[in-house]
């Protein structure tokens, strides 16, 4: 059956293209042994070896060769475009909720459109448009949010009525629809032929392509890729690109130094039919019915329809030898619910004759986003895989970004949300992946409301206080495998269960978080913040200080006991990490970074610290439990517990001291709270955690102490205009652009990474500016809540997007944070953003198509800061993370 | 009078019980996956009993069905006591010593059996002390004997059956100062019960049978079809060997009177049974016990009635016939059932119905379109029908219930007829026994993976 399908999807062009590049490679070798299985011997060395001849591998090869890299070998274990790529449904859809994915899909669409002209290979490209249907109001809201972000990118898109849907596609039953989104430029392609076209172009640019060659493992020496072992011999290389699709996980684990690529395959089914009596037009739009969990496209006069069922079937958990792709069974009973959804959506198709049910495995990742980038442990080892069934939509853009990454050191867009280094070894357990992808695949169609959490693969990393907090009503979310408290449900307070609390409007925890915030402002709260990444860097001499002074932008040569907020910048001055560093002694430093920095920051520092055995960096994340005591009475609780004066004169802000708390000694107390409120963070060796927590809670009783969660923290930090890394700050944002010049010491007497770029920005100005918006005419009870990614309009023109938002219980308004750009009205060129430009505009924030007036501010409300201790630092230490 | 399907279900499911052997480390290392059991009464109260337990001091699992007659007292006593006798017979000398020492010094006893009981399966509280003392005497004798040989399961089963029957007889002869207990032990001894017991340990399956209940193995052939293998012989008039045995044990002069109208001495259907001292004791003994016994016993015409042609007792034994079977991967399940089932269903049908139930729940034959012309609508209809069929199979969560449904409700075409089922289940108590007997079924499912690995 699979053989028949190959002929159907990729017509004679496959052969033509195939012969074309085969002829070229063989003419280079001056042999013409076309009949033999391996006509061309492998080269002994190459600059780049790409493993995988699907859409990803060929796209990377295509873009690398376009960017001038020529010494590239692409290896494919079977035939080009024969894996998931061959079976893929061929829908190019730009309707993606995540902006970087949207950009990739948009680029792919443009690339495929001109590919046939460029290569002469027929790609079957057809601009059909797509219609996403909404059966519920909530679904329509989520479509409107996507439509807003498509529109500001200049991609045509409109929200249409059910009546308009019928005009676009006569077969659709609209009786249960409330609306739809129409994206007229979405397209269909033959995915196998797109891949072959890319291969053809790459081959013309000098890329060598070898089929029936499988990679057994990649060799790594001193943390660098040195070569690739194949079943046909070894190739020395500098770069290796793992585009092995669903086999990427195994290939990553095959070497001595494993590269963890967390993805897992699930079976995916779609149906092919014979043509209708009156064959469907090939220009009929693709229909996506997420509430019915299905998609429907026209296919050779008939239809192709598949979906993402609620009960996916994961496979290859035990590895590839379990069964071959070609032998996968059609499972009609499993497809039954999707078939019902199809006939409900298009009842007129009842009499249409079935051709085949295709079982095409797709790989899924733990967070539903694809995986790209360089391994944190093996330099030169790149990965592009885990497309969550959108490989053809992302293929072009993803290949381009990865090629840029390899050639320029970083892609032209911020791809942190896709970066391999957002994962660590903790996400690569087979069991975890199997369970998580069973949740992820149905999520493809589920409604994604603000602040949803994964339910599977939980309780992996926990604080020693987990049970204590849980018993007190904690509700949990997960970050990098670590359980963190969202808020505490007071006893007797019955929150709606999960399904009902899913809303785009005011959530049910609103008052609960409000009371936690109030307690932080008026008394004292405890938040368990143990998930933060913690490193210790120390040396025998001055190596630690010297290295850190070079790698961080602020001045770390401060007196012992001081804490410094500083960025870890790249050459362009962008934030690779944002952290606080305490100087423990002359020669040792304690560094606190965001939770998801554990892998990225480690790799970044490892690659840049001098290779000196006297300079030691240790990940001590697991050694400390962190308790954040927020509020004006924190000082009283702590001084009573330690018999030490904790007032500002004795313990100024941004200070760090080891002291005893209760019976426990050696607690690192830092006078920061990450919220702008007064208080302390206690770094407690884990065996003392329970003791210190109990002491704090007992002592705190008379001061009105209570537990609080991250939602309260988030509200506090956003109302004070604190940016956090990973959400507001990224590798494309400099301290100058977010009002943090004071955290950069341009004249610290030595060079540091990013210094030049910052100096230049200081002279010439910045092209975007981090701004705080207070929503003016937004009704918290009645209106849709902002989340993040909402377009910002200045005087009616689009200037940027929000990056985070929260309700401020103090201001009793919603606060959004985001970046304002200045696009030239005629050319669209980016201009310098000045303070005047920000201050002299009328702003609106677009929430799912509805615009709300907003007041822009470049500085926080000073009235929100209850205490000022060290004048120079605290006031605008706009520093936060989540 | 008509019962709705939910009413039918609530009657059929009232006594159903399921046990799954617990998994360790996600693996079931036992050759038994679990069992389903159920009972449908025809007598009021029901005279059948069932038991299931895991041996804790030796390996293996015990399952049994007991069909009482002339009351349920004997079946009840056997269902409570027999497995203890078997378990003790299987225990090594050291363990027996340990247990005896514990009892002697008043320490806690090693648990011998873990019972798997339906809430309706009760144990007599009043008699437990008496039963325990008899059991203790048994193991004390075993300790004194100390044959030193490892215990053979076949021998253990035979010894246990015979010993228990002997104890039942003795207890009735000795009597008890407590009048309630005194009457109880007499009722136990004067009523009777057959027993069909399975002992499963790894691939070793032993069936010990006394009477006309039956054990049957369900075997899946290579082509997927089901066949039945008998693992017991009925001890009744239809069994030539059994008739032969009885005749051998008595003088030639009695040959004609031994078996009349397919009954022992023209009275008893099973040729082997527990209790039934009327067929075991001498006439003198019977008379003495009845005379000294309580009034209720004296007033009972049945107990006073001496079987005709009663010359050379005993005519009846509780000694079981033991069959050993080595389990193979194709042996998928074992059915233990009282004659109430076998009277209505052929064993081949039992094998098929249980086999299809057990496998059908897990996977229906998959559909493939192949080269056929199928439309979306046709396929949709087919799939909907399959889903419906699966959910109707799911109506029974229990293989024994499923089997009873067929046994009672099957029409001439071998499919369950709801109307018939409804009629059979709504018969008034006094009529029910005329149309059907008590039915007790245990279906044991085997773990082919474990069996294959032996």
TrEMBL record, chain A:
Keyword Transcription regulation carried by entry: no
Protein's cellular compartments: Mitochondrion matrix
One GO term describing the cellular component: mitochondrial matrix
The keyword Nucleotide-binding belongs to this UniProt entry's keyword annotation: no
Domain of life: Eukaryota
InterPro entries for the chain: FAD-dep_OxRdtase, FAD/NAD-bd_sf, FAO_M, GcvT/YgfZ/DmdA, GcvT/YgfZ_C, GcvT_C, GCVT_N, Rhodanese-like_dom
Entry keywords, A to Z: Mitochondrion, Transit peptide
Gene3D superfamilies hit by this protein: Aminomethyltransferase beta-barrel domains, D-Amino Acid Oxidase, subunit A, domain 2, FAD/NAD(P)-binding domain, Probable tRNA modification gtpase trme, domain 1
Residue stretches making up the Rhodanese domain: 48-91
Pfam families: DAO (PF01266), FAO_M (PF16350), GCV_T (PF01571), GCV_T_C (PF08669)
Entry's family note: Belongs to the GcvT family.
Function field: Decreases the sensitivity of PDP1 to magnesium ions, and this inhibition is reversed by the polyamine spermine.
Subunit structure: Heterodimer of a catalytic (PDP1) and a regulatory (PDPR) subunit.
Name this protein carries in UniProt: Pyruvate dehydrogenase phosphatase regulatory subunit, mitochondrial
Source species: Dasyornis broadbenti (rufous bristle-bird)
Gene, per the UniProt record: Pdpr
TrEMBL record, chain B:
Cofactor(s) this protein requires: Mg(2+); Mn(2+)
Domain PPM-type phosphatase stretches: 32-446
A cellular component annotation (GO) from this entry: mitochondrion
Acyltransferase in keyword set: no
Cellular compartment(s): Mitochondrion
Signal peptide (from-to): none
Matching SUPFAM superfamilies: PP2C-like
EC number, UniProt record: 3.1.3.43
MF (Gene Ontology): [pyruvate dehydrogenase (acetyl-transferring)]-phosphatase activity; metal ion binding
Pfam family, one: PP2C
Acetylation recorded as keyword: yes
Matching CDD domains: PP2Cc
Matches recorded under PROSITE patterns: PPM_1, PPM_2
Gene3D superfamilies: PPM-type phosphatase domain
Keywords: Acetylation, Calcium, Hydrolase, Magnesium, Metal-binding, Mitochondrion, Protein phosphatase, Transit peptide
Reaction(s) this enzyme catalyzes, per UniProt: O-phospho-L-seryl-[pyruvate dehydrogenase E1 alpha subunit] + H2O = L-seryl-[pyruvate dehydrogenase E1 alpha subunit] + phosphate
Enzyme type, top EC level: hydrolase
Record's subunit section: Heterodimer of a catalytic (PDP1) and a regulatory (PDPR) subunit.
Role: Mitochondrial enzyme that catalyzes the dephosphorylation and concomitant reactivation of the alpha subunit of the E1 component of the pyruvate dehydrogenase complex (PDC), thereby stimulating the conversion of pyruvate into acetyl-CoA.
Recorded family membership: Belongs to the PP2C family.
Full protein name: [Pyruvate dehydrogenase [acetyl-transferring]]-phosphatase 1, mitochondrial
Species this chain originates from: Dasyornis broadbenti
Taxonomic placement: Eukaryota, Metazoa, Chordata, Craniata, Vertebrata
Record gene name: Pdp1
């Amino acid at each position: 059956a699979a053989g028949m399908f190959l002929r159907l999807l990729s017509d004679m062009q496959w052969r033509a293209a195939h012969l074309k590049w085969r002829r070229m490679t063989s003419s280079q070798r001056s042999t013409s042994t076309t009949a033999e299985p391996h006509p061309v011997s492998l080269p002994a060395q190459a600059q780049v070896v790409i493993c995988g001849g699907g859409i990803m591998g060929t796209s990377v090869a295509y873009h690398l060769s376009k960017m001038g890299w020529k010494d590239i070998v692409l290896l494919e274990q079977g035939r080009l475009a024969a894996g998931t790529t061959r079976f893929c449904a061929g829908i190019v859809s730009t309707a993606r909720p995540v902006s970087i994915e949207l950009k990739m899909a948009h680029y792919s669409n443009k690339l495929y459109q001109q590919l046939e002209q460029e290569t002469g290979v027929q790609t079957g490209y057809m601009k059909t448009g797509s219609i996403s249907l909404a059966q519920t109001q909530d679904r329509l809201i989520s479509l409107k949010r996507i439509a807003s972000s498509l529109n500001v990118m200049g991609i045509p898109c409109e929200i249409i009525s059910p009546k308009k849907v019928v005009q676009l596609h006569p077969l659709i039953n609209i009786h249960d629809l409330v609306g739809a989104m129409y994206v007229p430029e979405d397209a269909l392609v033959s995915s196998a032929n797109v891949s072959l076209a890319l291969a053809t172009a790459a081959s013309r640019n000098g890329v060598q392509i070898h089929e029936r060659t499988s990679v057994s493992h990649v060799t790594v020496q001193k943390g660098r890729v040195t070569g690739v072992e194949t079943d046909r011999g070894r190739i020395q290389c500098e770069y290796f690109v793992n585009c092995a699709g669903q086999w990427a996980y195994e290939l990553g684990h095959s070497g001595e130094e494993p590269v963890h690529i967390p993805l897992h395959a699930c079976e995916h089914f779609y149906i092919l039919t014979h043509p209708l009596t009156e064959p469907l037009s090939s220009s009929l739009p693709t229909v996506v019915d997420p509430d019915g969990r299905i998609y429907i496209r026209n296919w050779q006069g008939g239809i192709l329809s598949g979906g993402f069922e609620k009960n996916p079937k994961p496979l290859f958990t035990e590895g590839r030898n379990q069964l071959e792709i070609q032998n996968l069974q059609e499972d009609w009973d499993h497809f039954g619910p999707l078939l019902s959804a199809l006939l409900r959506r298009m009842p007129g198709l009842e009499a249409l004759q079935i051709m085949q049910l295709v079982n095409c495995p797709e790989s899924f990742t733990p967070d539903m986003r694809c995986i790209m980038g360089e391994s944190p442990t093996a330099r030169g080892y790149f990965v592009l895989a885990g497309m969550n069934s959108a490989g053809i939509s992302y293929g072009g853009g993803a290949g381009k970004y990865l090629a840029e990454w390899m050639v320029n050191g970083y892609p032209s867009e911020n791809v942190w949300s896709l970066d391999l280094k957002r994962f660590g070894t903790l996400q690569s357990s087979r069991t975890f992946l199997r369970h998580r992808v069973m949740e992820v695949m149905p999520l493809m169609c589920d409604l994604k409301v603000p602040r949803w959490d994964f339910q599977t693969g939980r309780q992996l990393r926990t604080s020693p206080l987990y049970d204590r907090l849980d018993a007190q009503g904690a509700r949990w979310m997960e970050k990098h495998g670590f359980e963190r408290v969202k808020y505490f449900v007071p006893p007797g307070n019955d929150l709606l269960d999960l399904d009902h609390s899913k809303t785009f409007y005011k959530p049910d925890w609103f008052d609960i978080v409000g009371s936690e915030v109030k307690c932080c402002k008026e008394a004292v709260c405890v938040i368990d913040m143990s998930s933060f990444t913690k490193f210790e860097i120390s040396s025998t001499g001055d190596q630690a200080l010297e290295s850190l002074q070079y790698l961080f932008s602020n001045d770390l040569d401060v007196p012992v006991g001081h804490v410094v907020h500083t960025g870890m910048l790249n050459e362009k001055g962008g934030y690779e990490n944002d952290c606080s560093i305490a100087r423990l002694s002359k020669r040792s430093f304690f560094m606190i970074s965001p939770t998801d920095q554990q892998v990225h920051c480690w790799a970044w520092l490892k690659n840049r610290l001098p290779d000196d055995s006297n300079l030691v960096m240790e990940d001590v994340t697991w050694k400390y439990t962190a308790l954040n005591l927020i509020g004006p009475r924190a000082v009283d609780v702590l001084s009573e517990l330690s018999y030490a004066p904790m007032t500002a004169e004795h313990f100024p802000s941004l200070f760090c001291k080891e002291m005893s708390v209760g019976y426990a000694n050696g607690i690192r107390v830092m006078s920061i709270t990450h919220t702008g409120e007064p208080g302390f963070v206690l770094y407690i060796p884990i065996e003392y955690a329970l003791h210190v927590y109990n002491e704090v809670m007992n002592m705190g009783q008379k001061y009105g102490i209570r537990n609080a969660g991250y939602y309260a923290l988030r509200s506090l930090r956003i109302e004070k205009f604190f940016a956090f890394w990973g959400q507001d700050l990224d590798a494309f944002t400099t301290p100058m652009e977010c009002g943090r010049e004071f955290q950069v010491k341009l004249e610290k007497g030595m060079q540091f990474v990013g210094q030049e770029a910052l100096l230049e920005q200081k002279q010439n100005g910045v092209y975007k500016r981090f701004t705080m918006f207070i929503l003016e005419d937004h009704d918290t009870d009645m209106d849709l809540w902002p989340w993040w990614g909402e377009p910002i309009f200045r005087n009616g023109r689009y200037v940027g997007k929000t990056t985070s938002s929260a309700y401020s219980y103090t201001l009793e308004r919603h606060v959004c944070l985001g970046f304002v750009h200045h696009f030239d009205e005629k050319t669209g060129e980016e201009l310098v953003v000045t303070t005047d430009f920000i201050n002299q505009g009328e702003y609106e924030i677009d929430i799912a198509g509805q615009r709300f007036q907003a007041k822009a501010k470049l500085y926080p409300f000073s009235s929100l800061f209850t205490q000022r201790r060290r004048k120079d630092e605290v006031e605008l230490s706009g520093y936060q993370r989540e | 009078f008509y019962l709705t399907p939910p009413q039918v279900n609530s009657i059929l499911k009232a006594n159903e019980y399921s046990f799954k052997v617990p998994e360790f480390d996600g693996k079931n290392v036992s050759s038994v996956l679990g069992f389903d059991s159920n009972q449908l009464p025809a007598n009021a109260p029901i005279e059948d009993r069932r038991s299931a337990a895991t041996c804790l001091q030796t390996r293996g699992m015990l399952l049994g069905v007991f069909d009482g007659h002339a009351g349920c007292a004997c079946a009840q006593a056997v269902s409570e006591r027999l497995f203890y006798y078997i378990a003790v017979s299987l225990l090594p000398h050291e363990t027996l010593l340990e247990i005896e020492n514990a009892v002697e010094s008043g320490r806690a006893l090693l648990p011998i059996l873990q019972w798997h009981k339906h809430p309706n399966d009760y144990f007599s509280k009043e008699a437990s002390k008496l039963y325990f003392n008899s059991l203790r005497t048994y193991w004390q004798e075993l300790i004194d004997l100390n044959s030193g040989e490892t215990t053979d399961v076949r021998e253990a089963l035979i010894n246990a059956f015979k010993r228990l029957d002997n104890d039942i007889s003795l207890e009735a002869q000795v009597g008890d100062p407590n009048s309630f207990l005194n009457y109880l032990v007499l009722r136990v001894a004067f009523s009777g019960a057959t027993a069909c017991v399975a002992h499963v340990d790894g691939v070793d399956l032993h069936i010990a049978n006394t009477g006309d209940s039956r054990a049957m193995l369900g075997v899946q052939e290579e082509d997927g079809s089901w066949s039945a293998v008998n693992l017991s012989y009925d001890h009744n008039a239809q069994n030539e060997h059994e008739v032969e045995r009885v005749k051998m044990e008595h003088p030639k002069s009695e040959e004609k009177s031994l078996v009349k109208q397919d009954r022992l001495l023209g009275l008893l259907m099973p040729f082997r049974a527990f209790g039934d001292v009327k067929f075991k004791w001498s006439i003198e003994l019977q008379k003495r016990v009845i005379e000294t016994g309580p009034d209720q016993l004296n007033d009972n015409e049945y107990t006073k009635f001496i079987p005709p042609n009663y010359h050379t007792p005993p005519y009846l034994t509780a000694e079981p016939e033991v069959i050993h079977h080595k389990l193979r991967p194709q042996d998928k399940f074992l059915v233990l059932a009282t004659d109430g089932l076998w009277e209505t269903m052929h064993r081949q049908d039992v094998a098929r119905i249980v086999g299809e139930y057990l496998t059908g729940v897990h996977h229906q034959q998959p559909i493939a379109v192949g080269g056929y012309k199928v439309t979306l609508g046709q396929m949709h209809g087919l799939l909907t029908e399959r889903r419906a069929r699966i959910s109707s199979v799911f109506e029974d969560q229990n293989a024994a219930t499923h089997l009873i449904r067929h046994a009672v409700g099957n029409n001439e075409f071998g499919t369950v007829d709801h109307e018939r089922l409804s009629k059979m289940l709504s018969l008034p108590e006094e009529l029910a026994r005329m149309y059907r007997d008590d039915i007790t079924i245990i279906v044991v499912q085997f773990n082919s993976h474990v069996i294959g690995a032996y």
